UniProtKB/TrEMBL annotation:
GO terms for biological process: negative regulation of Wnt signaling pathway; Wnt signaling pathway. This is Protein APCDD1. Belongs to the APCDD1 family. Its main location: membrane.
């Protein structure tokens, strides 16, 4: 885990990098400003990589699944949550979104008092219209949309929750109605001067960014699953209404294509405003971190970042390691650089803020960097000074230890560093063990103080063969390094945006 580190030289490095490679994002044009020769994932992991299950699972992300993305997406249909979701706050919820062919939509957000979504508290029914506009100039693979709300309804399910909502709404909008459980109330309607949604920090800014994926497996070419990603929710509740998404929430599943083992999908799909879904009860267990954990999919982060992760926690010790593979595309086919980190972590303590979560303190004391395409290698060599390895010594595919230079100023990393983490252990519909760690702050800062600890989670990692010396822990870089294809002109805007950002990693 590393903190933000921004200097004029850092900005210059990133500006040069993006001027060189931001013209590399056109999938149709034959012209190339920078030719890239990315290093294969096998080579970058070394000898051990070839002999364990984790290797196979990460390679599967690159080679095993065929993913098609429709732009603009045809999202007409019914989409539902595949599990109990956690939003910053925390808020526990499930979602059921209907999009119709006439561009109208009806969204149900079911909120709960517990982290397994077994105790419904209230539901919001949101109606409106949605119109896709264009491919996102900020998040490659996404589609920007315009949306318009027409009505927001509220139904609560217990007297204590209703009383709590009554107080919030009276303070935010002067609500005069006396709320009752199991009755619906209009929080907002188009054309009205009163907006009571403020009291719930409600926002549908998530609809400004969409991505729909169809996933095909080589062995089952006739079958596919459809997933809908909508924009991320700001980690600061007070910023939700002004937030423009640059990442995604957990995907929603199309009810026509989801796997039959998804019990939550079945339950949520038949719920309605007056009959909220109640998911199966589960028992929380303290995380058993020992072993290896890898990404289930190519992950997208706010700040135009695509990566896969691999964690390892050593047996009978508090040592962790990590590899973070960064890519220039949203399906993780074109690697740009990797980071290997190592450090220690404290014993876990049950969270008093996030039900089911466990709090840890992580330190990072060692780090290595591997440039994995020509553009990144060249620009690391351009960076002056010895604040990121030895000046001018970078070679394609060759790992370099940057611990002696206290990290890598070019990548915005400084060592040593401490962060306050949140973990949760669960399982997917097939019974595989999953490990969740804290969501990175939307504003790019670092959770380097206890009060900055996350209250929601990143995409889960799945357990793979344990007991081998390997790698692991969170590595978030709020920028995107080069690849070998061309881009449409709008991507030249990136350098101008990036010089305004603080670049945080891990």
């Amino acid at each position: 885990m590393f903190f933000c580190y921004t200097t004029s030289t850092t900005i210059l490095f990133l500006l040069l990098l993006f001027l060189l490679v931001s013209a590399g994002w056109c999938e149709k044009s034959p012209h190339r400003l920078v030719k890239s020769t990315p290093v294969h994932l096998d080579k970058s992991y070394g000898k051990l990589y070839k002999h364990n299950q984790c290797h196979y699972m990460l390679k599967h992300l690159q080679d095993g699944e065929q993913i098609s993305v429709q732009m603009p997406p045809d999202i007409a249909g019914h989409w539902v949550s595949e599990s109990c979701e956690v939003r910053p706050g925390p808020e526990f919820l499930t979602r059921s979104y209907h999009f119709f062919s006439n561009h109208t939509f009806q969204a149900l957000q079911f909120y709960y008092r517990d982290n397994h979504c077994t105790k419904p508290s209230y539901t919001l029914l949101i109606e409106g219209s949605l119109h896709p506009r264009q491919a996102s100039w900020l998040v490659r693979g996404g589609t920007e949309t315009d949306y318009q709300l027409s009505r927001v309804l509220l139904v609560s399910y217990s007297l204590p929750v209703t009383k709590d909502l009554q107080v919030k709404l009276e303070m935010s909008c002067g609500l005069t109605e006396h709320l009752q459980p199991d009755l619906s109330y209009e929080l907002w309607v188009e054309g009205s001067d009163r907006d009571c949604t403020h009291g719930l920090d409600f926002s549908m800014q998530e609809l400004q960014l969409l991505r729909m994926e169809r996933r095909f497996r080589p062995s089952e070419t006739e079958r596919h699953a459809e997933e809908l990603f909508v924009g991320d929710v700001h980690t600061e509740r007070t910023q939700r209404r002004n937030h423009r998404p640059t990442g995604y929430q957990p995907p929603l599943q199309n009810i026509k294509t989801y796997d039959n083992s998804c019990i939550a999908c079945q339950i949520v799909s038949v719920a309605d405003l007056y009959h909220p879904p109640v998911l199966p009860s589960r028992t929380d267990h303290p995380p058993r971190l020992y072993g290896n954990w890898v990404s289930k999919r190519c992950e997208v982060r706010p700040g135009v970042l695509f990566l896969t992760r691999h964690f390892v926690f050593h047996k009978d010790s508090n040592i962790w390691e990590g590899h973070y593979y960064h890519y220039s595309d949203p399906v993780c086919r074109h690697p740009t650089f990797s980071i290997s980190a190592k450090g220690q972590y404290s014993p876990g303590v049950p969270s008093t803020t996030v039900m089911g979560g466990t709090e840890y303190t992580f330190t990072v004391t060692q780090m290595k960097v591997t440039p994995m395409d020509v553009a990144t290698t060249s620009l690391l060599n351009v960076f002056s000074g010895d604040e990121c390895g030895k000046h001018g010594s970078w070679k394609l595919g060759v790992q370099q230890d940057v611990t002696p230079t206290s990290g890598c100023a070019a990548l915005g990393i400084r060592l040593p560093h401490t962060e306050y983490e949140l973990f949760y252990m669960g399982q997917d519909s097939a019974g595989h063990r999953l490990l969740f760690n804290g969501q990175r702050p939307t504003n790019g800062s670092s959770p380097d103080q206890p009060h900055k600890r996350a209250t929601s989670y990143q995409p889960p990692l799945i357990h793979c063969s344990s007991g081998q010396k390997s790698v692991g822990k969170e590595g978030d870089h709020y920028f995107r390094l080069g690849n070998g294809c061309n881009t449409q002109p709008q991507y030249l805007v990136y350098p101008l945006i990036l010089v305004q950002l603080v670049f945080c990693v891990i």
